[in-house]
Amino acid sequence: MNIDGAIAVALVDYTSGMTLGTLGGGPDFDITVAAAGNTDVVRAKLRTIEMLGLPDRVEDILITLDHQYHIIRPLGSIGGRGLFLYLALVKTRANLALARHQLRGIEESLEL
Fold first, then answer.
1. Which of 16, 94, 101, 102 has a CB 3.0–4.6 Å from the CB of 89, allowing a cystine?
2. Rounded distance, CA 22 to CA 14, Å?
């Protein structure tokens, strides 16, 4: 939540749709509902990459709304398989490049 413009963040299991932990959110933004809904986005993207036979992994997925950025970052570590970080930001207060950089740092510091 120290990322400029952060509304909410979650750690999510995309195989089950379960949210493992959250910070932020509130009555105007239910992070648990948003995170669970985005499991379909992650599954679809990973399935598409597999069908295309691409050797790449998804670094992150960016969804741009009128007033928000949503960044989805599947975890690349062995212990993080099946998990993703989900960050929602207020567009006018966020620096997208810096937020992506900081989210990468959070991923690297996670102990699972």
1. 94
2. 15
Element (H, E) at 6: strand 6-13
Question: Which pLDDT does position 60 carry in this prediction?
Answer: 95
Task: Determine the Cα–Cα distance for residues 12 and 84; give it in Å rounded to an integer.
Answer: 5
In the structure encoding, which two tokens stand for residue 108, read together?
């690297």
The sign of the torsion formed by the CA atoms of 16, 110, 107, 94 equals positive
List, in sequence order, the alpha helices (H) in the chain: 31-37, 39-52, 96-109
> How far is Cα 100 from Cα 62, in angstroms, rounded to an integer?
10
User: What token pair was written down for 50?
Assistant: 């597999």
The two structure tokens encoding residue 87: 């960050």
Q: Average pLDDT for consecutive 10-residue bins of the chain (112 residues)?
A: 94 94 93 95 95 94 97 84 95 96 92 79
Rounded to whole angstroms, how far apart are CA atoms 69 and 87? 8
Q: Are 98 and 68 in contact (CB under 8 A)?
A: no
pTM metric for this prediction: 0.92
